[in-house]
């Protein structure tokens, strides 16, 4: 791809480090506004234990064109897809560690558009990740659709012995030159093409081949002159499910009963999928209303009345357990925890120091053959404890060393420090 007319280049590669992941959007928009990255069809390499590909469920689609209104609607799990609908991002490569399995491996093609019946943003993908949040609609129900390609790529930890075996990056590059996969077509279908789904344990003999395959997938997408965003959540290297510390195992099991997602058949037709989404929408709306009612009144009489509704049998036991530990439970937080108990648990894997080092080596091997990114965004995710707070500074320091080794001098902006009144940027 040729450099777009009028495109500007940074004197040093900027790295914006934020606390909550959706805060990177303002820096991406600023780079678009300054013409450092193009207005349309930007590609993103996204390293994270979470896909972050949900959509603000009730947000009007036109909100994406009002920057300040959009920023106020975004959250850590739903900041990418509004940029897709706005036309800015067309392809995301989600690189995930082995413990994060929310979306099937391989290439997914879908359309992201405006649902004509609700005026909200929806997708044509039938993956459980989108179905469980009631985000699927048939293609004919969307307007202003944008073709979107998602590559889901697993990255396993590298053997620490690879450090002394020549240059692992060059080895990966040499093994990553099979015929590139065809690019995304302009269709707005909801076709997913998963890989074979193999899920070997970390540090197996095939780990190097797997990284070479990851590099090949990325090089089939990124041309040498492509402007792209490299986005890293530090919880890629070590990840907690913070709700595991807020709720007991029994309470989480009860939330799973209440919020569990009934998957459609593998070969479900469009009518069945639409019925699944309608049923799921009602379930989530009922649960939201129930916990809103509990905020107002959680007396025994009210709880029993609410538990009489279909699917609410576990509610009495849950409220009783919550109140045994806290006289005034945070029911809004309980609902948020429940929303994560759909078809799978949130990833939870606190890595050892050795495993973090192995993942750093793996990431370095995967990124080394790629073109230099135009912009790097980093999320700490430590205040909400998705990245363990006692590990985040060490992980961040190691990530910056890897990036500097790969890409040279960096212009590092520590935005998370600005919020606490500290110096906001430094250069290295």
Give the secondary structure arrangement, pairings included.
Elements lengths: L12 E6 L6 H9 L8 E6 L19 H7 L7 H5 L3 E8 L9 E10 L5 E3 L4 H4 L10 E13 L13 H7 L17 E3 L12 H13 L8 E6 L9 H4 L2 H11 L10 H27 L3 H8 L7 H11 L5 H9 L13 H15 L7 E5 L12 H16 L2 E5 H4 L6 E3 L1
Helix pairs in contact: 5-6, 5-13, 6-13, 8-11, 8-12, 9-12, 13-14
Family: Belongs to the UPF0489 family.
Protein name: UPF0489 protein C5orf22 homolog
InterPro entries: UPF0489 (IPR024131)
Question: Mind explaining what this structure looks like?
Answer:
With 428 residues, the protein is of the alpha/beta class. It has helices at residues 25-33, 67-73, 81-85, 128-131, 168-174, 207-219, 243-246, 249-259, 270-296, 300-307, 315-325, 331-339, 353-367, 392-407, 415-418, and strands at residues 13-18, 42-47, 89-96, 106-115, 121-123, 142-154, 192-194, 228-233, 375-379, 410-414, 425-427. The chain has 15 helices and 11 strands. Strands 1, 2, 3, 4, 5, 6, 7, 8, 9, 10 and 11 form an 11-stranded mixed beta sheet that branches. Helix 13 runs parallel beside helix 14. The longest helix has 27 residues, at 270-296. The chain is globular. Belongs to the UPF0489 family. Pfam families: UPF0489.
């Amino acid at each position: 791809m040729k450099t777009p007319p009028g495109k500007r280049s940074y004197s040093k590669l900027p790295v914006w480090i934020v606390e909550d992941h959706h805060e990177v959007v303002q820096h991406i928009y600023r780079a678009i506004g300054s013409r450092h990255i193009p207005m349309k069809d930007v590609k993103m390499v996204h390293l994270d234990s979470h896909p972050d590909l949900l959509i603000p469920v009730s947000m009007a689609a036109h909100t994406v064109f009002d920057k300040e209104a959009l920023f106020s609607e975004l959250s850590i799990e739903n900041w990418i897809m509004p940029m897709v609908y706005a036309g800015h991002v067309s392809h995301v490569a989600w690189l995930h560690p082995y413990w994060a399995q929310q979306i099937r491996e391989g290439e997914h093609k879908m359309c992201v558009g405006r649902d004509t019946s609700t005026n909200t943003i929806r997708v044509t993908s039938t993956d459980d990740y989108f179905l469980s949040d009631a985000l699927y609609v048939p293609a004919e129900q969307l307007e202003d659709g944008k073709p979107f390609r998602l590559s889901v790529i697993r990255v396993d930890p590298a053997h620490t012995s690879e450090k002394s075996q020549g240059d692992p990056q060059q080895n990966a590059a040499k093994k990553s030159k099979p015929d590139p996969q065809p690019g995304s077509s302009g269709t707005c279908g909801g076709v997913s093409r998963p890989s074979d789904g193999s899920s070997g344990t970390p540090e197996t003999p095939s780990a190097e081949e797997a990284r070479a395959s990851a590099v090949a997938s990325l090089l089939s997408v990124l041309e040498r002159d492509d402007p792209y965003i490299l986005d890293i959540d530090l919880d890629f290297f070590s990840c907690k499910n913070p709700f595991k510390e807020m709720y007991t195992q029994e309470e989480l099991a009860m939330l799973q009963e209440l919020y569990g997602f009934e998957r459609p058949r593998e070969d479900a037709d469009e009518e069945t999928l639409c019925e699944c989404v309608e049923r799921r929408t009602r379930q989530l709306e009922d649960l939201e209303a129930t916990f809103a009612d509990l905020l107002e009144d959680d007396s025994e009489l009210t709880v029993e009345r609410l538990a009489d509704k279909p699917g609410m049998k576990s509610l009495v036991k849950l409220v009783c357990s919550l109140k045994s530990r806290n006289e005034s439970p945070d029911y809004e937080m309980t609902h948020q925890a429940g929303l994560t108990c759909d078809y799978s648990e949130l990833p939870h894997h606190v890595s050892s120091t050795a495993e973090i080092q192995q993942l750093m080596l793996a990431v370095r091997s995967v990124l080394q053959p790629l073109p230099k990114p135009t912009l790097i965004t980093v999320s700490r995710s430590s205040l909400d404890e998705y990245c363990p707070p006692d590990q985040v500074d060490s992980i961040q320091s190691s990530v910056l060393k890897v990036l500097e080794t790969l890409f040279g001098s960096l212009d590092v902006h520590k935005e998370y420090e600005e919020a606490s009144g500290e110096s906001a940027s430094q250069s290295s």
